[in-house]
Amino acid sequence: MNQDTLTRRGLLIGSAALLAGLPRQSPAQSAGPAIHVMKDPNCGCCSAWIEILQRERFTVTTEASMGTLLMRYKSENGIPQEMTSCHTANVDGYMIEGHVPVADIRRLLDERPEAVGLAVPGMPYGSPGMGPESEREAYDVFLIRRDGSTGLFSRYPAA
After folding, report:
1. Contact criterion met (CB below 8 Å) for 151 and 130
2. Which of 26, 42, 49, 77 is in the most buried spot, having the most CB atoms within 10 Å?
3. Based on the structure, what is the number of domains in the chain?
4. Is 12 contained in some domain?
């Protein structure tokens, strides 16, 4: 028999040795923050924002809601009417309203301010899920405080 012939046993032993040397991650390490999104099931920009979250390793669940039910959900969870957008999410007790960039969500979770959450009111072009960032219009991300007031959290200039 030729010494260069690969046997099934040799392949299995080699594969096991290779796998044993790879770093391991538990499911908790590989999954990002869990975020639950309330959205109109027909909204493409909401779906685009969700895809961005998934690429950034967020564990996303969605729930269909629209019209007055969605507006009531926003209101009941402390989102002022002037801060509303098309979708609303909950991540680790914070509300995320609209096309908030992932970097701002991560900063919110790191800093843990006493707040309702973050909002990007309206649907600014070039915000995550709303078209190319290279063509974005200027927009702000607001921190929604528990008393209903808001303050600037971050600013994105026009590209």
Report:
1. no
2. 49
3. 1
4. no
